[in-house]
Amino acid sequence: MAEFRKFKVDLDSNSLVTSKKTVGDPIGFDLSFARDQSELSGASSRRSNLANRQAALFSLAQSPFKNVAMMSFMMWMAGAQLHLFSIMTTASGVYQPISAILKSGEVFPPDPEKKLDTLTPRLIYCLVNGLGLAYACYRIYGMGLFPTHLTDWASTIPAPIVTEVAVSSLW
């Protein structure tokens, strides 16, 4: 029965030993390429680290797009009627982008080494949140809560001064 076993485990050395033959390199494996990769200079490694950090900044800049899209969908589903849910959803759609834009300096702090571009990802972040704010304003307009017509401001217009007086007479 022992002749059917291909592998034998030696628990003392924690190694896996084959009984018949050794396993060769996988198809397409080139040992010289593996050695070349291990001998990379530190400068290219630093460049790739800098590129990875910049890519992470751009990924962070585009991350609120999913939140803005979901909030826009929620506002659309709430409808244009004046109900508690539609007003609360729209208020949240206004508050979240404004707070995100105001906190963008904390999300994208300036690089002390001055090697990373933090301005462009910060502008993209603010633009994405600005689009969410624009859609929230559109929903407010659709509900009729946005004062866009002259009659919305009629209470602030002073009454005209009377310049003529009409008097009736009996003769």
TrEMBL record:
<dbReference type="InterPro" id="IPR009445">
    <property type="entry name" value="TMEM85/Emc4"/>
</dbReference>
<feature type="transmembrane region" description="Helical">
    <location>
        <begin position="123"/>
        <end position="141"/>
    </location>
</feature>
<keyword id="KW-0472">Membrane</keyword>
<dbReference type="Pfam" id="PF06417">
    <property type="entry name" value="EMC4"/>
</dbReference>
<comment type="similarity">
    <text>Belongs to the EMC4 family.</text>
</comment>
<protein>
    <recommendedName>
        <fullName>ER membrane protein complex subunit 4</fullName>
    </recommendedName>
</protein>
<keyword id="KW-0256">Endoplasmic reticulum</keyword>
<dbReference type="GO" id="GO:0005789">
    <property type="term" value="C:endoplasmic reticulum membrane"/>
</dbReference>
<keyword id="KW-1133">Transmembrane helix</keyword>
<keyword id="KW-0812">Transmembrane</keyword>
